[in-house]
Amino acid sequence: MKIDEQGRACTVGGVRAPHEDRLAVTKASLLDAAKAAVADRGLNYGKPEDNFLRIAGLWNIYIRDTKGVSAMLNPADIAALMVLMKVARLSNMPAHLDSWTDIAGYAACGAEITNGENSA
Question: What local confidence, expressed as pLDDT, does residue 43 receive?
């Protein structure tokens, strides 16, 4: 795989990477895509704070049962951990736009959960 000057994959085995046919990504266009993704996810999964609370409960049980330690993950932790999952995926494919978009979405959810209208 070759990397261009913006750090994007240009070729994979001599085949053009899919991003070559896309328009340039701007900060604003990525944030617009993240906003749309968060709205779309809300239709499928409910409010982020409710969904992240469910995930935290399941992960806390999993950690307790498999590692023997008590975990106290909360919805804000889940937002941060989901960002880290996407960062891990980017280490394999830095030009994967969906991961960058999802990071922005998870960051926005985490910020709203901890500082927005839904925070205590």
Answer: 87
pTM, whole model, 2 decimals? 0.76
Which tokens hold the place of 10? Answer: 């240009």
Nearest to 105 by CA among 85, 117, 19: 85
User: Given CA atoms 49, 50, 51, 53 in this order, what sign does their dihedral have?
Assistant: positive
Q: In this structure, are residues 96 and 22 in contact, taking their beta carbons and an 8 Å threshold? A: no
- Inform me whether the pLDDT recorded for 4 exceeds 90: no
- Amino acid occupying residue 14: G
Q: Give dist(CA 58, CA 93) in Å, integer.
A: 29
Torsion from C-alpha of 5, 85, 73, 40, nearest 10 degrees? 90
* pLDDT tens, residue by residue, 82-94: 999 999 999 999 9
Q: Which two tokens stand for residue 18?
A: 């899919």
The contacts of residue 2 (CB under 8 Å, 6+ apart) are: 9, 10, 11
